[in-house]
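User: Structure please.
Assistant: Input sequence and predicted structure:
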Amino acid sequence: MHYVTVIGSGNVGANTAFFIAEKGITDVALYDIRDGIATGKGLDMMEAAPIRKYRNRIWPAKTLDVIADTETVILTAGKVRSPGMKREDLFEENRSIVAELAPEIARLAPDARILIATEPVDLITTEFARLCGLDRSRIMGIGGCLDVTRLRYFASRELGLSPENISATVIGRHSDAMIAILRYCSVSGLPLTSLLSEEQQNKIVEQTRRAGDLIVGMAQRASAFYAPSAAIADLVDAIHMD
């Protein structure tokens, strides 16, 4: 099993495929229920390969059977938020997609790892685990990874430092109820709490909590997708490299 499958070829799905290929992790099968979407976006991304210098293939899958030989299944399919919507408002709509896909994924790819990006990610991940009957330890939501990368960015901006030198820890739901454990955040080994005032600490935590809402409100026609896709690719890399 030397490839991953992305189910859903919207903004999150397509960018996830691109980041995985560009990072040189593995090949990517791209599947979408809408005819032609995966084919068109897959071709577009492969035409970028000579310039971006990646060798991994991104190819369109005609049926869901493609996941039978996949290492990791990434679920990005579903409706996205509009301005003023909470993540939880999408649950009933996206729940029907999970109800249809979970048994099929379990049947076709019982040994794969499952990454969930469909919103609201925590509720959908829980629902998927309930419906599929697979080992729950192999089913992961990407909310924590996304919150961590956002916190690292806001800390780096506050400090005027490169985000790659910052590590962070966030627990809890991917929502405004997330909990940043700042005493376990550091900059090149130095505790973040020793470098930022309490006011600055509260500021970056609040920015992290509100980041998704702010993006939806400003973009109007799309929710966040670059950072979620990057977070998924990072998690895929960790899984693929064991």
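The longest strand covers residues 3-7.
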